[in-house]
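The instructor's notes for this session suggest beginning with a concrete chain rather than abstract definitions. Hand out the sequence below and ask the class to guess, before any prediction is shown, which regions might be ordered.
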Amino acid sequence: MCGITGWVDYDRDLTAERATALAMTRTMAPRGPDAEGLHLDRHVALGHRRLAVIDVEGGVQPMTHGPATLVYSGETYNFQELRDDLAARGHAFRTRSDTEVVLHAYLEWGRDFVERLNGMFAFALWDSRTEELLLVRDRMGIKPLYYAPTRDGVLFGSEPKAILAHPGFTARIDSDGLAELLTNAKTPGHGIFAGMHEVVPGHIVTVSRGGLTDRAYWTLSAREHTDDLATTVARVRELLDDIVRRQLIADVPLCTLLSGGLDSSALTALADRALGADHVRSFAVDFVDETGGFVPDDLRDTADGPYVQDVARHVGCAHSDVVLSNAQLAAPSAVDAVLRARDLPGMGDMDTSLYLLFAEIRRHSTVALSGESADEVFGGYRWFHDPAAVAAETFPWTSTALGRGLDLLDPGLQARADAYLADRYREALAEVPHVPDASPAERRMREICYLHLTRMVRTLLDRKDRLSMAVGLEVRVPFCDHRLVEYVFNTPWSYKTYDGREKSLLRGAVADVLPESVAQRRKSPYPATQNPGYERAVRDRLAAVAADSSKPVHAYLDLAAVKDALSRPLGPTSLQPTRMPMERVLTLSDWLDAYHPASL
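After discussion, reveal the predicted structure:
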């Protein structure tokens, strides 16, 4: 995994800038608790913090071979095949690491080498022959990578905080940046802070004396699907078996995240099978005082606990529940840790609980497999199957009652955010590839799938990366393997729903390894606490913020709406209409207080 950062400046000698390069690198310390490294040359500074996962002793970075120096974050899952190929071509290796394989692949095949990589990665590669820097990000955007062009080069880092640590960059936010952080659809390349960008997933940014260029090496494309249904289900299973086998490779303890839903249960079962006699370890999150007291709400029909136990018994995995209290969820230290991890406003208790879950898992494991993105790949969310949401002229997840969470903000700000979202929706829709002669219904469902795979999933991947790496835990996401994504994207919607339910292809592919209860369970999202004591704590915090006129967030609030929300009785579940907007205000307030972004 790891954290990377750096600086290119063609107008100064960066060998004299060790202190600044080191300060930028050390912002990445939680991502890489095991080692620190710097590479300084006349016009480039590269920093690396390492989380040792493969070849613990040998994979030290920055890594140099000949004219090329690499700082790398992530995993290349096909590195062993690539290593064999490169060795046959005369390359000699000093380590067992995938990092060295990536470095040699560049020297053998040039910048097109990235098309050969299967994995989750973000890396920077400096070529001293051309004095060019390549910034490369994986196809689905699993690993983050930000950059900020300067007059004479670039600043970059795994997270915004690395760039913010440079004295030449100031945290500023313009109207588009503010609208972007208030929407629930991640715009490719947008970095929120003015002057900061993300490397678009599947892209290479080249930095040279002539400036910056941006090239796509991968995009989702439309192809005719010629396999019949039975062949398609079998192919999905074949891909999943291969993907899970590859992603179990690690020289450190590994586990799975198990919610009792179809996605995480499938990965847990397949991982356990692949490991053979060594049963996989699994972890789930739960909340104090909720076992036996669960109340169905708009998104969750059932509690996770019974299904988690069904899977653990069926598979035979070593399972642990991480049970969190209101005090833990509302603790200022945890709330601040989440903010510092994300560098942006977050999702309230759903972020805090995930962070605390990861912190506990890290005491036992260094790598975890997660079911993230299966809903986007296979069509799992309920709005995929809601005709009104599908027909809405917006991102379908934002058309639901829970899709905005802006009710307590100034109406003018809400209107600007809505207009911004409408523009981004039109841009996204114009990108969607289609096959000829598809029916209107198939065309629309391809659009819906594309929007999820390029806008929604990246928000969730970013959240998972930040909160896991904040405690030095590597989370792998098998359902984001680009081979699986490409294949399922091009299957007809009728295949994805062939049994009349959500995620039909996945259910059909893995039903044989699951207990019947889980194979038939309806989609249930990541849980939020239903304990009313937590909402009381949220309301107390919001009341304090509303009463303090010195708070920067006041400029963005509808104080009458806040007062009205605070006067309403506590609702019966976590998803009552006021809960999410309250947490939206609090996370925005905390961010403004901590980061002090200047307005443009």
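Then share the key points. DSSP finds 22 helices and 19 strands in the chain. The chain has two domains: 3-216, 229-380+454-519.
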